[in-house]
Design goal:
The chain is α/β, with parallel strands linked by helices. It has a single domain, classed as 4-Layer Sandwich (Purple Acid Phosphatase, chain A, domain 2), CATH 3.60.21. Helices cover 19% and strands 30% of the residues. The chain is built from 4 helices and 10 strands, in the order βαβαβαββαβββββ. The protein has a 5-stranded mixed sheet with strand order 3-2-1-9-10, covered by helices on one side. Strands 4-5-6-8-7 form a 5-stranded mixed sheet, with helices on one face. A hairpin with a 5-residue loop joins β7 and β8. Keywords: Metal-binding.
Amino acid sequence: MTTRLLLTADTHLTPRYPRRELPAELWEQVDAADAVVHAGDWMDPTLLDALERRATRLVACWGNNDGEELRARLPETAVADVDGLRLAVTHETGATDGRERRCDARFGPGGTTPVDVLVFGHSHIPWDSTTPGGVRLLNPGSPTERRRQPACTYMTAAVRDGALVAVERHDLAPAPTSRRP
């Protein structure tokens, strides 16, 4: 059996940007996924409500731009078992330099929260690496705010027999068709 994951972060939906919406392609992936992983910076609790309604399973945390309501509903770091794969999601892992070492200290074998995969956000820069201790680090980028990246992004992944067997980064068109939930 294969479990399909949708990985996203940094959606930054807020009344300050009333035209910003999640791309239709991302909503299609939400509907197709067995689990949705969101690595924080929602900024709008209505998006959390919509994902809780639509996602089969949601594993999520709050980010540095999320207010009190989101922080009351979400953990700073969420840990879940996804068909035998131990997965954590947190918003921020610090600077690029030393990231693998810091993540191994906390999430690697012998760390305080050992996991197989850590999904994180904050930078809006897609990232896929493996620490020396064997923890897979994934940052899906942002589906709504590309910053200095060539495109807005998200990731999909697959879990089979307790292992991550596929990770794919998806680049969104510069002006994706959008709709609110």
